[in-house]
Write a structure and sequence with these properties.
globular; two-stranded parallel sheet; seven-stranded parallel beta sheet; Rossmann fold; alpha/beta; 8 helices
Length: about 280
């Protein structure tokens, strides 16, 4: 039986675990504090990748590894501890030449492109330390594990009732109109499905962009959501800091055979809102 380790057992990790279980995979998941009432359908490991001594109870052999951990804060030191030092620590424990690694990175590594289309071949010029640290981590995992596939995700959504909805209803969200700041999103279900899809490919490419079909001007997206919620109009304001405006192309991922359940974040957010009202 194929045995996989998911480093990062949060919402995305658990969605991924359920999908892999349905395919008959033996799933292990690692996080600092597993749920108080954890599922018994997969094996939880209480471990911290930044503390190598906590990794000693992990099985030594896995066929695949999904690295989808998130740092505890946006501070560069937290990013480095999780994505560079922690990754190296975990590979010291479970790394082997035939291990297939799926490393979740971020589209923030691209930086500012003034609304132009970006793909896997676009040079990366991150605007901040965190993007540079992610690039360092990508380089580390490629060098350590030749069978690595990197998935650079855009903005994730689709978990419960997002704080964004409350901020829109309170009128505390703003966005620029000119110049347009482009927003890129991917539903968490699609992100988990994309990881499984890449895992199922015999020879995936080393790098993919994970984002839906419909980049949107940020003001248009927020105004659509405000109208859906019955919130006040979205005022004009500055663009988000350290993100950069760009439109992400998912052509490589789609050409590999992947189909999005939520190709347009407006419909995904709307379904999320309706589900919250029905609960």
């Amino acid at each position: 039986m194929h045995r996989t380790l998911i480093a990062g057992g949060g919402d995305l990790g658990q969605r991924l675990a359920h999908r892999l279980l349905s395919l008959g995979v033996e799933v292990h998941a690692l996080r600092r504090q597993p749920p108080a009432d954890p599922t018994r359908r997969w094996t939880w490991h209480a471990a911290d990748v930044t503390q190598p001594t906590t990794l000693g109870t992990l099985p030594a052999h896995f066929h695949s590894l999904f690295y989808i951990l998130s740092p505890g804060s946006a501070a560069p030191a937290a990013y480095r501890a999780t994505y560079v030092q922690g990754l190296a620590n975990l590979l010291d424990r479970v790394g082997r030449p035939d291990l297939r690694v799926f490393f979740v990175s971020s589209s923030s590594v691209y930086g500012e492109h003034h609304g132009q289309w970006v793909n896997e071949d676009t040079p990366c010029q991150p605007l901040g330390d965190n993007g540079r640290i992610l690039l360092e981590a990508e380089d580390l995992v490629r060098k350590r594990q030749p069978r690595t596939t990197i998935l650079r995700l855009s903005g994730l959504y689709g978990n419960g009732l997002p704080r964004l909805f409350e901020r829109l209803r309170s009128g505390s969200v703003s966005a620029p109109r000119q110049p347009v700041h482009w927003a890129n999103r991917i539903h968490r279900d699609d992100a988990a499905a994309a990881l499984v899809h890449l895992w199922q490919l015999q020879q995936p490419e080393p790098l993919y962009l994970g984002s839906d079909d419909t980049p949107l001007p940020l003001h248009d997206l927020y105004q659509y959501l405000a109208s859906t919620l019955g919130a006040p109009p979205v005022p004009v304001g500055p663009a988000p800091r350290m993100v950069g405006s760009k439109r992400l192309s998912n052509a490589r991922l789609k050409n590999s055979g992947f189909s999005f359940r939520w190709p347009d974040s407006r419909e995904g957010y709307r379904a999320q809102w309706l589900a919250s009202q029905a609960a």
